[in-house]
Design a protein that fits this description.
With 226 residues, the chain is mainly beta. Helices cover 0% and strands 26% of the residues. A five-stranded antiparallel sheet has the order 3-12-5-6-11, with no helix packed on it.
């Protein structure tokens, strides 16, 4: 077909014998993004052929501080798996978001371990360890790690607690792929983590005991491409 020069929506291409005009098709690339901060079902929109999944485990909770000016350690960050999937045969996927590591309560508890997140059976990521009390000897506070992804990342380890020094601050939580670490204050309760970050520890400059901060719940982002 003969078209005026410069007609929008068409390009000149080589036909079977002679050059001919062809209609420009809609381009690919990133079309949309879905994110999940709680467990749900992912539903793929029409026309999407590939997806890029980021799945992050929950952060560990920070430990309490007190009882002789001890400062609690922060919780570790959750791990992250990143995977690119051919989505032509995908319609829905169960998204499980790991629960926050519990905050160490004032008066004697360490932070809780963060829960595991998963994107169906495709990829998953474990949560970070909970923080330890500054006046105790505990194991390592290790970040979670991704599994099943094209790229599997480990969450950051947190800052540990301290013994008997009321001038110090508490341990800062470990960050996840998204950051989100909770702060460990001086003379206060630990701040909560977000997006898989570990909670901060609690610290006291008086006789009053302080609680740690909860870890951030797991997180999932799905980028959708044509």
């Amino acid at each position: 077909a003969r078209l005026p020069k410069g007609t929008a929506g068409y390009y000149l291409k080589q036909g079977a014998n002679d050059p001919e005009w062809g209609a420009v098709e809609a381009g690919g690339g990133l079309q949309s993004i879905q994110s999940f901060s709680s467990s749900a079902t992912y539903t793929k929109p029409s026309g999407i052929n590939k997806i890029k999944v980021y799945i992050t485990g929950a952060g560990g909770g920070g430990s309490w501080g007190g009882g002789g000016y001890y400062a609690g350690g922060g919780g570790a960050g959750g791990g992250t798996a990143i995977e690119i999937l051919d989505a032509t045969s995908i319609s829905t996927v169960t998204v499980t978001i790991g629960a926050s590591g519990t905050a160490g309560a004032a008066g004697g508890s360490a932070g809780g371990h963060g829960g595991t997140s998963s994107f169906g059976s495709y990829c998953s990521a474990t949560g970070g360890d909970g923080g330890h009390f500054g006046g105790s000897i505990g194991g390592d506070m290790i970040g979670g790690i991704g599994s099943g992804g094209n790229l599997n990342l480990k969450g950051n380890s947190p800052q540990g607690g301290t013994d008997g020094n009321h001038a110090n601050t508490a341990g800062v939580g470990g960050g996840s792929f998204w950051g989100g670490a909770g702060f460990g204050p001086h003379n206060g309760n630990g701040n909560a983590g977000v997006f898989g970050g570990g909670g901060g520890g609690g610290n006291t400059a008086t006789a009053a005991e302080k609680s740690g901060g909860a870890g951030g719940a797991g997180f999932c982002v799905v980028e959708e491409y044509k």
